[in-house]
Amino acid sequence: MPLLDRGRLQSTAADAQEEPSEASTVAKEQRTRPKQKAKGKRLQQLDKVPGKENEAGPSEILLDLRKLDGEPHALHERRPKLASRPLGPLGVRTRFVPTQSAAANARIMLEDNKVTLYGTRIPNIWLRDNCQCGSCMHESTRQRLQDTFAIPRDLSIRSASHAKDMEPRNTHVEIEWSDGHKSTYSQPFLASAVAGFDERCNIRQGFVEPTLWTAKIGQSGSPIQSPPWSCSCSRLTRPQRKYGFCYIDHTPHDTPLATEQLLRRIAFIRETHYGGFYDFTADLASQDTAYTNIALEAHTDNTYFSEPAGLQAFHLLSHTDGDGGASLLVDGFQAAAELLRTDRSAYQVLAETRVHAHASGNEGISIQPYRGFPVLEHDAATGGLLRVRWNSADRASIELAVDEVETWYDAARKWDALLKKKENEYWEQLVPGRVLVFDNWRVLHGRSAFTGKRRICGGYINRDDWISRFKMERFGQEKVLGALAGS
Fold this sequence. Notes:
By secondary structure, the chain is an alpha+beta fold. It has 17 helices and 19 strands. The longest helix has 15 residues.
């Protein structure tokens, strides 16, 4: 259900030659505004999506992505154009499976001074631009040193051969170019150029097939098999990618120092208007309800930032003279998958309608993202669910005409009901020594009201920083750099 005049984007050539008056343009926009009763019909229909039976397994669904129409006009539409099949949290392929014909040609083939792999010829300009020698690519920073556009357009291969000192045979190729430069390429590196699009995206994003969970996660013990404070960084980040959270046990709690050191082992701690690493009590030192003792419904943090924090951590250092304050976690991807199964139209509304947010409680501060974002954000490359943004307390305007907002409220009501569904709420009482770390792009958090005095410490970590650490440990440097070079 587009919100700007679609007639303008679809005008005929004859219309484009005319220069209508401002009044006639306004009248045309009013005539083409979709009516309330037609809203359901204007929503894009979703193709078949993964069902509940696929929650724990990878999906092999292929994507049929669609380009934005209207070029500059599309950038300003209040409803972002999604892939024709927004697939939800389970709709991304996790591996590249070559065809039988490609598998039969897995070796680097040299024919007529042309390089072929998996039956695909790799263009000379790509090969030369991605030469990995020390004069073309900095050995430490992996930054390009050569001027790409100084490479001759008619560059050709003078000679090419399989490296004779490499084993097994045909896994490396040596090329001498017509300009005299020499390059060597490995089979895994060249495979990145012809690998499936989804595979490259998955490596770049550090994608892992998510395991969706409900309140029963507390009975399974999966993420609660907590690594100790002194564990390796990979044990800290791996469950974040799979479950969206984990606990870190045996963390010293006499001071917040050990918790801060723990977070810095993952990545840099993000600075915000609240500071960096935080250590607070319910004293409203910062003007936010988190700094009170009232109950908080399930929400994500930083909806008022253009880029919300990736990871968030809480460590209860002490709780005296009172009780309560249990922590609430809800798997936003699980709730999204459930909404997609039960009401596709509502899912589509939350995936397309942009919503604004703000943080304006502190003196002299009013933080707002550069534009509104939908509650359910999808990756433009894969169509998969990327991020959940939900905090009704910080919500500002909804980018819909006032006579159309009921559509969003109806969809949001269904979403809110899923978040408050007892079967989806996982409650756990934090204790000193146990640090909770969770993915703020996926897992919503809240708490029950409490009495007494609680001291909490923690912090935010940027998404790019922790994903970088995770994917380098999971995929290795060669695969990660190969995905960067992929065409």
